[in-house]
Amino acid sequence: MEYKTELHSHSTEISRCAKINVRDSADQYIAAGYTTVVLTNHYCDYGFDVTRPWEDAIKRFLDPIHEMQAYAGDRLTVLPGAEVRNYESINDYLILGATEEFFKENRYLFRFPLRVISRLVRESGALFIQAHPFRDGMQITNPALLDGIEIFNGASGHQSRNQFANEWAKDYGMIRTSGSDYHAIYDPISGGILTEKPIRTPQDIRDTLRSGNYRLVCEGPAAERDGMQTMSAKE
């Protein structure tokens, strides 16, 4: 048996561009055979309520994770994550393998320079991954600031040039990830990773991605468009 984990997913409670709440999202992932979801809501000025006191704002950011887990129960594991964007560009970066304590301790992380965000994430043990780096409007990031690249983004409404991302990650020897970039019930759930052991904790995310012992899920319209298919992370 293989266990399926989503690494890039949004919900309407935080991400303004999303059109699905965490309960409906949980139902969709369970039906699609996923065992774990990392909820990576947008962590930036337009996705994070900066008008509230910090304790209230970060609670609001983390509450959907708790709600999704409580609703799903033992049918699905839900882990914290984020898609962060700072003031330097419109690039997006996934924070994977982070604990809730990391987000609580690093106030308004998206307001820092990218090099500082990268350092804080990586010093905590979490992974800093550039999402859809070849989508229109994105800028190349110094590979030294990254742990990895999202080589497959399943959002069919965007041209993410996934093949370019895959080759770029290979050229620089970076961790390769895949994610559906799920926003709405009509979006394809088409990305993630497949593992021989279940992923239940942030540490499991870190260890698995660093090991390379997983398969990259590449399915749906974006995979057909880009000529990609589910593959070993070691290919």
**Overall structural domain count:** 1
Any idea what the CATH superfamily is called?
Metal-dependent hydrolases
Low-pLDDT windows of residues = none
CATH architecture tag: Alpha-Beta Barrel
Largest sheet: 6 strands, mixed
- Helical coverage, percent range: 25-40%
Structural class: alpha/beta
- Name the CATH class: Alpha Beta
Distance between the termini: 21 Å
Molecular shape: globular
How do the helices and strands follow one another from N- to C-terminus?
EHEEHEEEHHEEHEEHEHE
Do you know the CATH topology? Answer: TIM Barrel
Beta-strand residue percentage: 15-25%
- Counted by DSSP, the helix tally is 7
Question: Could you describe the 3D structure shown?
Answer:
This protein is of the alpha/beta class. The chain is 31% helix and 20% strand. The protein has helices at residues 22-31, 54-72, 100-105, 114-123, 162-171, 202-211, 220-226, and strands at residues 3-6, 36-39, 42-43, 77-80, 82-84, 93-96, 127-130, 148-153, 175-179, 191-195, 215-218, 231-232. Strands 4-2-1-10-11-12 form a six-stranded mixed beta sheet. A hairpin with an 8-residue loop joins strand 5 and strand 6 (93-96).
